[in-house]
Specification:
The protein has 764 residues and is of the alpha+beta class. It has a 5-stranded mixed β-barrel with strand order 1-2-3-4-5. Strands 6, 7, 8, 9 and 10 form a 5-stranded antiparallel β-sheet that branches.
Length: 764
């Protein structure tokens, strides 16, 4: 069975059953993966799996678990960490009720990828075997043939057989084309990779260029970013350093761990040739890449990244960073399935460190002067300051400020574990310290996997000498874990000991807002506003809490303190203050809607979402007053710019339903009349087509085009689809060309054939 046809048929079945969200997840999870958004896939996957299991649909569970693994092993480059799930899914996908699922074939690719991530060269025989076994039972016309062939070729390359991989990929391509299939983007990039491994750099570049020039290929952001990174690496290998630097994508969230090996090798070659690019920030970045491979159990990649970072560290005279890289590489060498020269490479690097480390570091100034010296140096380099700070601290181990500065330098260099050990040592000896080390330690512990245990350990340690800070630790932990009531309990204990702590009150107020305890938040923010000498952010936060609570008197009081004039003197605030953007968070991503501002921190959403998506139109919302983005510097851009604000609370959910309407444009006057009529009926009409949208003219023998329009029509939930269908027929009866709304007609039990005929006639 063709996997794409299966997905299409399954989506149709689920849509008919009203499972619109599940269809959205089926489409979005692979899309977000290929666009390098692993966090979004992680956010959606639990819901998707729960839905598949609730429907008792094992094939759909295979689908979602496969894409979850692809996300972990492709984007996140997990190795040993993902292996248990890869093995478990392989077993699940070959049970009686799942082995016929088209996606079950892809599960064998998951195993091959996982072996490659753990230790590619060490697992070559197994990768070749599992790929060969799978290829023997699928036709070249299937999409899986492309994927599994790539895995076989990658294993050949990891075995040093790039020339063989080139020939193999050519043969497999011929098989695909013979059966009517076309090799995809990833396949062609793998062919370029084989040429690259064989040292045929110009041919590899030509292969990438041919992909870029092919308009017929189904491309995505992840593929394009992969090619850009690969192109930069090839140019760097050719010594074309300036071109490589220009081609290398800037590091950011879309540079996922899958791209770390090529991206890091390219930037390392550039930094070796251009020392101005070899700085501590690059070192921190490369060490974080190696640490990610460490956590994911990608052993050989971890070693390669650690040594790459270490070599650059030696070039910039940073032996402390080089030693850390060496320690990480040594930890993973025994975990390789086959050594293949790794131990010798690590030993050679260790010898270089020993040779370049030099004599014992001597302080160039009194230890008591080091803190002010480093803090006073605006161009301070934490990596270069490290030995200076360590030498000074060795003499002044009770110096709070110096201890904190040393921890900051470690953290700046990405040495979190070393910083934690250092901070625990200092706070353990000085639990009474009210300088930076205890707060630094708390901040790091809150971000750790075992935060509950470690923060409680810190709180218990400082409790006898600094009870308020102990309560602060517990309050912060409760907030981080969304235990909102607990936050208030700990803050109350803190305030009993330190009544003037404004930061603690603000934390409590934020927790009350998160818990939707708006009345409590109003009381807390009102107290903070009264304590403030000047009106400001506390008044804005108070208005947000009060708007959510419906405490309009409190809103009016704070507005007056801020010098804002509101219409009326009592009751709900209802203003007409123009447009703004409001931002929602869902599935690990944010999306904006246009809204009309109805008060200082309230608005009504006007954007109509597509059918099947979460609908917010006509919702009345409360937003946080702090803009999420700064206004653009360009004056022309600033005039068109609308500030985005975070949605805090929906005070009224309209629950409108949305329908898709398409067809020939009736002309400006008739369409404006339709829009006005819709508004009178409390409907929302949102045009989505552009001015260049055209439809076929059925009266023309020349296939001439007519101006077209398509829009979303949102209607109140109490209005039956049959009534919407009837009124829409009435409102468009005078149009020269009929519009179509097949989904609405189907829901209304009306004549769908009429709409299908319009779609056919006008080429919609």
């Amino acid at each position: 069975m063709d996997i794409f046809q299966w997905i299409e048929d399954l989506s149709d079945e689920l849509n008919e059953a009203g499972q619109y969200r599940l269809v959205e997840l089926i489409n979005r999870i692979p899309h977000e993966l290929h666009d390098n958004h692993p966090e979004r896939v992680e956010a959606m996957l639990p819901e998707a799996l729960a839905a598949a299991r609730a429907l008792q649909h094992p094939w759909l569970e295979v689908f979602f678990r496969h894409w979850g693994l692809q996300n972990r092993m492709r984007n996140l480059a997990e190795g040993e960490k993902a292996l248990p799930e890869a093995v478990s899914l392989l077993e699940f996908a070959h049970r009686d009720q799942t082995q016929q699922c088209p996606q079950s074939v892809c599960v064998t690719q998951d195993i091959a990828i996982c072996y490659g991530n753990v230790d590619g060269p060490g697992w070559v025989p197994e990768r070749l075997a599992v790929s060969e076994e799978t290829l023997a039972r699928i036709e070249p016309s299937r999409a899986c043939y492309d994927c599994i062939s790539r895995e076989y070729a990658l294993a050949l390359m990891d075995d040093g057989r790039a020339g063989e991989a080139i020939g193999y990929l050519q043969t497999q391509e011929q098989n695909m084309r013979r059966d009517g299939a076309e090799p995809g983007v990833a396949y062609r990039e793998t062919q370029a990779a084989a040429l690259f491994r064989a040292g045929r750099y110009d041919e590899a570049l030509a292969g990438l260029a041919s992909i870029d020039a092919d308009d017929m290929l189904d491309d995505d952001d992840g593929d394009r970013l992969s090619r850009q990174t690969f192109r930069a690496l090839i140019l760097a290998r050719q010594g074309r350093i300036d071109e490589a630097w220009e081609a290398l994508p800037e590091y950011g969230p879309l540079i996922v761990p899958l791209l770390y090996p090529r991206w890091s090798e390219a930037v390392a070659l550039i930094a070796q040739a251009r020392p101005e690019h070899n700085h501590w920030r690059l070192g921190r970045l490369l060490m974080s890449m190696a640490a990610h491979m460490d956590q994911g159990g990608a052993h050989r990649r971890c070693i390669e990244l650690a040594l790459r970072h270490g070599e650059l560290a030696l070039l910039r005279n940073a032996p402390w960073s080089a030693r850390r890289a060496l320690e990480l590489a040594r930890r993973h060498q025994p975990k390789l399935r086959a050594d293949l020269g790794a131990a010798a490479q690590i030993d050679a690097f260790a010898t270089r460190i020993d040779a370049l480390a030099g004599a014992e570091f001597a302080l160039p100034m009194p230890a008591e002067d080091v803190y002010l010296h480093v803090r006073g140096n605006e161009g301070s380099d934490p990596e270069q300051d490290m030995e200076l700070l360590q030498a000074a601290y060795a003499q002044r181990r009770d110096d709070d400020a110096l201890a904190g500065l040393l921890a900051s330098a470690m953290l700046a260099c990405g040495a979190r574990e070393e910083a934690l050990a250092h901070l625990w040592d200092f706070v353990g000896r000085h639990p009474e310290s009210d300088e930076s080390p205890p707060s630094q330690l708390l901040e790091q512990l809150l971000d750790g996997d075992d935060a509950s245990v470690q923060v409680e350990r810190l709180a218990a340690l400082v409790q006898p000498q600094r009870a308020p800070f102990a309560h602060w630790c517990r309050a912060q932990l409760a907030f981080r874990h969304a235990r909102w009531r607990e936050v208030g309990e700990h803050v109350q204990r803190l305030l009993d000991a330190a009544p003037e702590s404004l930061g603690a009150r603000r934390l409590w107020a934020r927790a009350a807002m998160e818990a939707n305890d708006f009345a409590q938040a109003v009381d807390l923010y009102a107290d903070l506003a009264e304590r403030s000498e000047q009106p400001g952010s506390d008044d804005w936060d108070l208005m947000t809490a009060a708007s959510a609570a419906g405490d309009w008197a409190a809103v009016r009081r704070s507005a007056a303190r801020l010098g804002m004039e509101l219409s009326g003197s009592e009751g709900p605030v209802r203003e007409t203050w123009g447009w703004l953007r409001v931002r929602y968070e869902r599935d690990g991503e944010s999306y904006d809607c246009l809204a009309r501002r109805t008060g200082p921190v309230t608005a009504q959403v006007m954007t109509v979402a597509p059918p099947g998506r979460t609908q917010h139109v006509r919702d009345e919302i409360v937003f946080d007053a702090a803009p999420l983005e700064a206004a653009p510097e360009d004056e022309a851009e600033r005039e068109r710019w609308l500030a985005p604000f975070r949605v805090v609370h929906t005070s009224h959910r309209a629950d409108y339903r949305c329908w898709f309407v398409d067809g020939a444009h009736p002309g400006e006057a008739p369409f404006e009349a339709l829009r006005e009529a819709a508004e009178t009926l409390d409907w929302s009409l949102w045009v989505r087509s552009g001015e260049d949208y055209r439809v076929r003219d059925p009266a023309s023998e020349e296939d001439e085009a007519l101006p077209g329009v398509y829009f979303f029509l949102a209607t109140p939930p109490q209005l039956a689809p049959a009534e919407v269908d009837r009124r829409l027929h009435e409102l468009t009866a005078g149009f020269e060309h009929p519009l179509s709304w097949p989904q609405l007609a189907e829901q209304a039990g009306a004549d769908v054939a009429r709409h299908e005929a319009v779609i056919e006639a006008y080429g919609l």
